[in-house]
Design goal:
Layout: E1 5-10, H1 16-19, H2 24-30, E2 34-39, H3 45-49, E3 53-55, H4 65-84, H5 101-117, H6 120-135, H7 138-150, E4 154-157, H8 166-174, E5 179-182, E6 200-203, H9 206-215, E7 224-226, H10 244-250, E8 258-263, H11 273-289, E9 294-299, H12 310-315, E10 320-322, E11 327-329, E12 337-339, H13 342-353, E13 356-359, H14 364-369, E14 375-378, E15 411-413, H15 419-428, H16 434-445, H17 452-463
Parallel strand pairs: 1-2, 1-4, 2-3, 4-5, 5-6, 6-7, 8-9, 8-13, 9-10, 13-14, 14-15
Antiparallel strand pairs: 11-12
Helix pairs in contact: 4-5, 4-6, 7-8, 11-15
Protein name: UDP-glycosyltransferase
GO molecular function, one term: transferase activity
InterPro entries: TagF_C (IPR043148)
């Protein structure tokens, strides 16, 4: 029987981690699929990994598409605010940019579009307009020709949020090729991040499926499949775990110390994040003075290009060791910072060899709870907060945090003065979020986080 050909489509680099650097391809091949990576990124899968790929060299989008897309997002958030009578949705909006004539014109035009399409029917109309624009885009014809040449049986898009994918997926749909999109992140659905319209949607969990159907009435239940996400699979691969002696020697860690991981955030999410690292360093120094022997592993956010942590790392070098993510910057945008395959192994070992993780509202709570390690969430403001700096408190009000079974799904540190005692209690085992955190992990990532790649391929098989 002829192998079914699947195009795994990378409109940008965010899907590489899930679908190129896990066992996703190998599992698909074992199940008999002919897999080609349809690659719109600057990362060569053929040169770097030896994968069969079709490169998309045309990266054009229609000049008006970004403006209509921004307007669509704001209209969807307006509709959600009205529909659910919930003030959280305006907090997802980024402010308009009026710096310079070009940005001012774009912002004013976007506001005009919002006024024109500001209703649930308007969302459908603006989506249709975006599709019409992208069908006129030369990239549409370019991608259509590639599809006609290679004739895949299905196009699987690795993220639902990239404007670069619209014309390519429209070309596939117009040729009668089934299309599926993977919903990339646990917070994307309420934030109006669904840019593409495909025949099918793959989501992490039943919780996320309910969200898709709630926010997108044009999507029918039989179009949404629960598959999990490959991003957590490496945590269940014991072959990646190095011995304590090996890992500590490779990363300049002291085998006599217990380490707490501080997982950094991007500047938008936590603009004063460096001060939380400093608070942790002060708490660790104090605990060490009382007989503990602790250190901090600082793992920065891969898309944070700032130098804001440098002074803290230098000032507290007696307790802080940097272990950077193994990612490579190949462009100036956040989605042009691409992971190296080795970073999966690094993250697994940081989780395994740390006592806990601390951060502001990061999904690393799930990475660590997979290893039965607790998470402390910082939930207090820094004295450096002033007008124009974002309040981190709004993060925990976002819709995706309402998925917690109870607030005990993380250890919340509500004041700076609590931190030392909370760290000590977690170390002593008298305070933990792991039992409830595991329940939360199931809500978000589904019940089989170790077998998501197989589930995706089984679903693709059933569709074809």
């Amino acid at each position: 029987m002829k192998q079914k050909k699947v195009f795994v489509f990378f409109p940008d680099g965010v899907g590489l981690r899930n679908f190129a650097f896990t066992d996703f391809k190998w599992i698909g091949e074992q199940m008999g699929f002919d897999i080609t990576y349809w690659n719109n990124t600057v990362f060569s899968l053929k040169d770097n990994l030896g994968f069969n790929e079709v490169k998309i060299e045309n990266h054009q989008i229609h000049p008006l598409t970004p403006l209509y897309t921004r307007a669509r997002k704001r209209v969807e958030l307006n509709v959600s605010e009205q529909k659910f009578n919930d003030p959280v949705y305006p907090t997802y909006k980024f402010p308009f940019n009026y710096k310079g004539l070009k940005n001012t014109v774009k912002s004013l035009y976007t506001r005009l579009l919002i006024a024109q399409y500001n209703s649930e029917k308007g969302v459908e109309r603006i989506r249709a307009k975006i599709n019409a624009l992208e069908r006129k885009n030369p990239k549409y014809t370019y991608c259509k020709a590639q599809l006609q040449e290679h004739q895949p049986d299905l196009v699987f898009c690795t993220t639902q949020r990239a404007t670069q994918s619209i014309s390519a997926l429209l070309a596939a749909k117009d040729l009668g090729i089934p299309t599926a999109a993977f919903v990339y992140s646990w917070d994307n659905v309420p934030k109006a991040m669904q840019v593409v319209e495909t025949d099918y949607y793959f989501v992490w969990s039943e919780h996320m499926k309910r969200e898709v159907l709630q926010y997108y009435p044009f999507v029918k239940e039989n179009q949404v499949f629960v598959t999990g996400t490959p991003q957590f699979e490496p945590h269940f691969d014991n072959s990646l775990i190095k011995s304590r002696d090996t890992f500590f020697a490779e990363n300049n860690l002291d085998v006599n110390k217990k380490y707490i991981c501080f997982s950094g955030d991007d500047e938008t999410t936590s603009p004063l994040d460096q001060y939380y690292l400093e608070d942790l360093a002060i708490a660790v120094r104090s605990l060490n003075a009382k007989g503990e022997n602790l250190g901090i592993i600082y793992r920065k956010c891969p898309v944070d290009f700032t130098t804001r942590y440098d002074k803290v790392v230098k000032d507290y070098s007696d307790v802080i060791v940097k272990i950077d993510p193994i990612w490579k910057q190949v462009g100036s945008q956040w989605n042009q910072v691409l992971p190296a395959k080795e970073d999966f192994e690094m993250l697994v070992n940081v989780c395994y060899h740390s006592e806990m993780v601390t951060n502001v509202c990061s999904s690393t709570v799930f990475d660590f709870v997979a290893h039965n390690k607790p998470c402390i969430y910082y939930n207090y403001e820094q004295p450096q907060l002033k007008k124009g700096i974002r309040d981190i408190g709004q993060n925990y009000k976002y819709v995706h945090f309402r998925s917690m079974p109870t607030k005990e799904a993380a250890v919340f540190c509500e004041t700076k003065s609590q931190l030392e005692a909370k760290v000590k209690a977690v170390l002593d085992g008298t305070l933990t979020n792991v039992p409830v955190g595991k329940e939360w992990f199931k809500v978000i990532a589904g019940v089989t986080p170790d077998a998501s790649s197989k589930k995706i391929w089984e679903t693709i098989k059933s569709i074809i």
